[in-house]
Amino acid sequence: MSARTIIITGASDGIGASAARTLAAQGENVVVVGRSAAKTAQIAGEIGADHFVADFAELAQVRRLAAELKEKYPRIDVLANNAGGIMGDRQLTVDGHEKTFQVNHLAPFLLTTELLDVLTASRTKVINTSSVANSIFARFDIDDLDAARKYSTNRAYGNAKLANILFTSELHRRYHEAGISTAAFHPGGVATNFAAESTSPMRVAYTSFLKRFMLTPEQGADTLVWLANGTPGTDWTSGGYYAKRALSKANKLAYDGGLAQQLWDRSEAMVAPKGD
Prior knowledge:
By secondary structure, the chain is α/β, with parallel strands linked by helices. Helix content is 43%, strand content 13%. It has an eight-stranded mixed beta sheet, sandwiched between helices. α2 links the parallel β2 and β3. The longest helix has 23 residues, at 153-175.
């Protein structure tokens, strides 16, 4: 069998880099996407992969990335939407959206929807990195997605990770019959740098001696790799939320189909180019 094309965002560090290394070692055609040009090029060079640089805090860069991917890869077997992180104080992006929500949800939503024609034709597996924070911190308000009324670092992150699961559910509903299979997953508490910009109390765990008690990036990437290698309908169920290779219980709002549809529609409006 020929190598599959597997695109991984947030692949310049942490679980994304680990998954890229593992899948490349298995003979797959891995495409590394990251924000840091130097770190992204380093990982790509290490595993002999193509790479692209995009900052998800700017939606124009996400559109450019999608166009570049479509031009180079007529077939995409796996799209792993892994980029994300916990931010600091409330900050708006150049697009006018709360940064946590944009980087963790709106950008991967835009990337996926921009690639839909390729993804359906390729019968792609779309894997979205969520977090148990969806159950712990989320206080989801569909009318305040940019957290203009209520903001805390943890709440914003939890809401974005819940949005990942709602997006997964709605992507399944809309496009599974057209060929797309999709799953969200919680990687566990992984010793990475993804909280480096955060003012959250969670940052302490990622920057102190507590880090030694956390999962390694390789352990955190395990479920991502398992989903990428598994067969939907046999090994895992499309539209599901996973942890440790098993279906997991998410926030009760994650199972609200009406909310998932609303979020999709609102997200489409939020990522539309200004003037549309």
